[in-house]
Amino acid sequence: MIYLIFLYIYNLFIMKTSKDILNCKYCIYRNLLFGQLDDKQYEIINNARQEFVFKRGEVIRKEGERINSFLYMRKGLVKLYKTDRRGKDQILSINKPGDFINLLNIFSNSTYKYSIAALEETLVCDVKLDAFIEVVKNNTDFALSVLNRISKISDETIDRRFALAQKQIKGRVANILLFLAENVYRNNEFRLPVTRREVGELVSMTTENIIRTFSEFRKDGIIDLNGKVITILDIKRLKNIDKTG
């Protein structure tokens, strides 16, 4: 309870705000969810939103914290994770710009069932939940779009977790590297945004197994490692490992 009170005070006074977008109508991500709104409804959302900037490692929302806003990410990268009774984290997903990082929670629970933390500098739009729900209630097309988006997020999460569970360690690591290269950075060379330990949390393997697999991929000429920078040298072989897993 004391921690949550502290977090509330932190949210009010310490988080860095931004004015990157002056109006929701001009946001490049608006058609992902807000394309069905009229001018009045855009204004309701726009007046109820704030933009916050989070540095790498900052917790955006904590498991158990009360849900009072709708969040979507405009820039950056975040991880969604749960913490068990022993204090060990399990990463549920890595989310990129355009993702609605708390949509699965806002209608079914009053508090967060997972935590959200920035993996790199991240810009998040925070819309007061009352305003978001008001628009949902008064716009059928928008409500259906929200339901459709919830279903897609749920399906993608289930499919991804199931696919990872069917793979051996090399297949799991290959899958994560391909996800980062193709879906996040769109480049075969990128800076790994998570530690080896966090990769292990994401694929349910030990840190030692992750380090060993990276070393084997490097030895086999599949990737090159320079600190945290990874270069995929043989994407065809990496895709084959992901497929046969």
Task: Offer a quick outline of the entry.
With 245 residues, the protein is of the alpha+beta class.
How would you characterize the overall build of this protein?
This protein has two domains: 2-163, Jelly Rolls, CATH 2.60.120.10; 167-244, Arc Repressor Mutant, subunit A, CATH 1.10.10.10. It is 42% helix and 24% strand. The chain is built from eight helices and nine strands. The strands form two sheets. Strands 1, 2, 3, 4, 5 and 6 form a six-stranded antiparallel sheet that branches. The protein has a three-stranded antiparallel sheet with strand order 7-9-8. A hairpin with a 5-residue loop joins β4 and β5. 26% of the residues are buried.
Stated plainly, the CATH topology of the largest domain is called Jelly Rolls
Could you state the order of secondary-structure elements as H and E?
Answer: HEHEEEEEHHHEHHEEH
Sum up the overall morphology in one term.
elongated
Task: Specify the CATH class of the largest domain.
Answer: Mainly Beta
Uncertain residue segments: none
Distinct helical segment count: 8
Strand proportion, as a percent range, falls in 15-25%
Helix content: 40-55%
Global mean pLDDT: 86
- Kindly give the count of domains: 2
The CATH architecture designation of the largest domain is Sandwich
Radius of gyration, in angstroms, nearest whole number: 19 Å
